[in-house]
Fold each of these.
Amino acid sequence: MDNENVYLKCIEQKKDTLKQRRAEYGEKLNELARQNSEYSEAVTVLAQIGSALAISTISGDVKNTEKLKVEAIKYSAIKKEIEKRAGIEPFKYECSLCNDTGFSGGKICSCIKKMASEIRIKSVSKSAPISGCRFDTFDLDFYDDSLPDGTNPKKKMTLILKALKEYTLNFNPNLSENMIFFGNTGLGKTHLSLAIMNELIEKGFYVVYDSAFNLFSKIETEHFKNHIDDTYNDALNCDLLIIDDLGSEFLSSYSQSVLYSIINTRILSRKPTIINTNLSIKEIEQKYTPRVSSRIVGEYTPKKFIGTDIRQKKVLRTK
């Protein structure tokens, strides 16, 4: 579901919630009127004053209009005092910026963007461990300072973490680069992919995240069984597409065609994509068609994750 439709859904939900809250508040006031004759009288008098004010204003009777305004202030004060004694606070909107309309200053209100973010994050959390995947939970202490081959995983991953934070901070859906994260399993590729997604969704960007296996399976099922292309269109049009675990999908001529169409279309429309995979560049060239591999190799900035499986280290740390 694209941003526009998610926003519309949130605005409708906001309206429904406001309608329900107004009804509940109105019922409290009606119950107070049934139980308190003084309050009931104040409500009735205020209604009469309101009608009289309208007539007086239209007729141009300034003296009477001012008199009626004084009376309105008097009975409004009586009404509010009785409500206060009954423990009924004045009605408040959930969002003071838009008064629960969903729009502030002619634009989508921040409260709607927050609701949309929560919907997207909840959707992704069904298939990915999203809750703990943030930049500040990415623990560099799991990476060694040196390995027998002379590499320094901690230094390398520190630089990658810094680069990805900057990428997210300066993200532009029409200018940001494509990236491919590659390296062995358990080195943090999925964690950092989800960290990027988390922050960008919270900023209001339209991010689609899925594993290669799920993404291509959904697209194939929708296309051939349901005769719709919702997932495919989302993959083409989102601000950022993140394909997790490329190489895990069932490889067929159809999935190769879909993969090429998605990455090529997004390259041409300058929409960024992030791919993470356990495959090496050489394995990508061997596994996929030249059209697919050449786009990935030629158009994606590589980020090589190095080190030893941190999942095993996490298990040992808890023992």
Note: The chain has a mean pLDDT of 88.
Amino acid sequence: MNITLDKIDAVNAVVTAEITPEDYQEKVKKAIKDFRKNANMPGFRKGMVPEGLIKKQYGLSILAEEVNKVLQESLYNYIRDNKVNMLGEPLSSEENNNIELVDGGTFTFKFDLALAPEMKVELTKKDKVEYYNVEVTDEMIDQQVDMYRQRGGNYKPVDDYQDNDMLKGVMTELDVEEPVTAEGVVMLPKYMKNDDQKKLFEGAKVNDVIRFNPTTAYDGNETELASLMKLDKEKVGEHKGDFNFQITEITRFVPGDLNEELFQQVFPGSDIKTEADFRQKVREGIESRYQKDSDFRFLIDVRNYLTKKIGKLEFPDEKLKKIMLNNAKGDEQKVEENYDKSIEELTWHLIKEQLVEQTGVKVDDKDVTEMAKDVTRMQFAQYGMMNIPDEYLDGSVKEMLKKRETVDNLIDRCIEVKLGTALKDIVTLKEKKVTPAEFNKLFEE
């Protein structure tokens, strides 16, 4: 097969492929024989249909399929072997629609190629990029320690009510002939919407009876009132008067003690014995999380820096829009609305490809598995589950790695993490200390 590439300009090219009978005839013969082995036609036993009849009825479709296989394989081998930096897929020329396939013929196919713009990405110590170090304060450590203590705490019965305590008791409607009564009602006065109603419970004790108005207390919220009165939401509007609440139990949440039991719950297998050591471990955990965030921010700043340094690149807009139109199922408006953003992402992709090659960053299966574990741990951490059993973690990761799209995303994340680490040693870091609020604001901007 003869394949040639003609460059129209810096970002557009046409590739021409000439397919001769020598390229496809043996493959067609084999395909016909294989088809004959399984062919079922009236009047013939399976596998005994005459070859001439197979050619007559199915020869053209088999020829087309085999020619297409040869064309696609040869075309992509040519692009790979000649390192043609192509964007998207080759676009079939309209001339290909007029090709008549005839056994023994020579066929010429043409494809339009969108070429990546030529550029040179270079980073040295002369290049200065911001790197943000987030200050971990004692207050942040206090908040994290309190969160751990809350997780290890429990409710204990007390005699008198204080703000944030939980009340349990019996509600009875007043001044009506057929009063509503609800037993086992649980209530947190702190979350009442009306301050005057909230004050009625200050200093209350077990067995006290408090007269209050639920509708006023909860600002008429039907969902909350239905839960209190143990009624359907549609009926709560019929009971807007006062109720008595007889307190049968008051419970108070008591945070867990800062002891070795809590230390082991949070950091299993550690040798932490003192509160000071525990706080230091908490600090290290916060610093580690912020360092990952700082590295992520650093790569964003590298992207912005290099995009500005390289300047506006020339792209084959017409061809790229055709490729995007195929992916968008013909939605021209969607292509136009997203084109500029797509070009921004494509520019960064091309820059990143060169950076990966220059730094020698590589990702293996172990990296992808570890990244999947990190992602899974973060997902569980959002729900307060810090220490996931290994067998459960491994099971979740195994399910994640079954999805091709998920694996591709994990690979991309691994590449960016390793690339960020490598680039920190190549450029000069303009280090800045910032507060968490200042750091978070960078992402809002």
Note: The mean pLDDT is 90.
